[in-house]
Amino acid sequence: MRVLQQQAIRFAVAAACLVLGVPALLAEPLHIRTVSQDNNVLKFDQSNPQKPGICVEVIRAVERLDPGLQFWGWDQPMALPRVEQQLALNQLDAFCALIKTPDRESRFAFIDVPIYQVHHRIAVRADDAVQVGSLDDIRKLGAQGVVIVGKGTSHETFLRNQGGLLLEASSGSTDVNLRMLAGGRGRFLYHTENALLRYIEDGKLGSKVKLLPTVFKSEVLQFAVSPAWPKSHRDRLEAALAKLSQRGDLAKIFANYREN
Question: Residue 177: what are its φ and ψ, rounded to 5°?
Fold first, then answer.
C-alpha cells in the first residue's frame, strides 16, 4: 500500500511538471519552510473556513498545481519583524507575501510574480470632517495630524522616509491601531484599503471610523525567499506562481477578498 501511495505521489508530481514545464530532475518533493503572519487576517485567517486568507489560498493553489511543492509551517503565526529576520538568516525558505522595498531587497530575495495589489488609504473617526488629498496636507496640520501606522511595517518605513509627519507606531496590530484611532490616540490611520475595510467590518467599527477617498500609493505583494534558497527551488516556485497568474487564479483569489 505504501509503495502504491508513493507511486501515486510521483505520478502527480510528474504530471504537474509537464503542465509547468519543469524538468523531471526537479520534480522531487520540495519542502518549503514558511510561517503565517500574525495580526493579518487578510493574508492568514485560520478561524475563517470560508475566507482563510489570500496567502492560505495561494499556498493551497500552488500545492494543487505542483503536488511536489509542500509548504510546512504556514499555520504557525509569527510577528512580521521576526519573519523578515528568519528569512534573512535562512531559517525560512519562502513567505507569502511582502511589499518589495530597498531594505528588504538588501536582506532577501523576491519572486517577481505579483500575488495581489494593494492601495494605501487612511481612516479617520466617523465624525471628523477633515479632507486631505496628500501627505503634505497632513504635514500642514502639525500636532493635529498624528498618523497611526503599524509598527515594523513597510508602511511605517515609507511614511518615515517622507519626513515631517508625526507618527504613532507603537503597535503592529491593525485591530489595536483602529481602536486607538477610535479612542483619539491619533487623527489618521495609514494602511491598505482592503485590510482597513476587513478589520473595520470584523471589529464592528463602521459607526466609529471611515475611510477617506485619497489613494496615497499602490503596490504589489510578492513571495519573499531566503537569499540562500537554491535557484532551482526558486525557479520551480516561480513557475507555479506564474502559471497561476496566467490562468487568472491569483486574480480570482484576491477578488474574493475585495471589500465593497
Answer: -65, -35
Residue 149 belongs to what H/E stretch? strand 147-149
> In whole angstroms, what is the distance from residue 127 CA to residue 142 CA?
20
Question: For the chain, what's the residue count?
Answer: 260
What values do phi and psi take at 95, rounded to 5? -150, 135
2-116+223-255, CATH topology level: D-Maltodextrin-Binding Protein; domain 2 (3.40.190)
Alpha helices, DSSP H, located in the chain: 2-20, 54-65, 80-88, 102-105, 135-139, 154-162, 174-182, 193-202, 231-246, 249-255
Alpha helices by DSSP H, listed for 26-173, are 54-65, 80-88, 102-105, 135-139, 154-162
**Same CATH fold, 117-218 and 2-116+223-255?**
yes
What is the Cα–Cα distance from 75 to 59, expressed in whole angstroms? 11
Third-level CATH fold of 117-218:
D-Maltodextrin-Binding Protein; domain 2 (3.40.190)
Q: How far is CA 249 from CA 114, 196, 242, in A?
A: 12, 24, 10
Rounded CA gap, 35 and 48, in Å?
A: 18
- Binning pLDDT at 50, 70 and 90, where does residue 25 land? very low
pTM of the model: 0.80
10 pLDDT more than 60: no
Q: What is the pLDDT of residue 84?
A: 97
Which cell is 82 given? Answer: 521576526
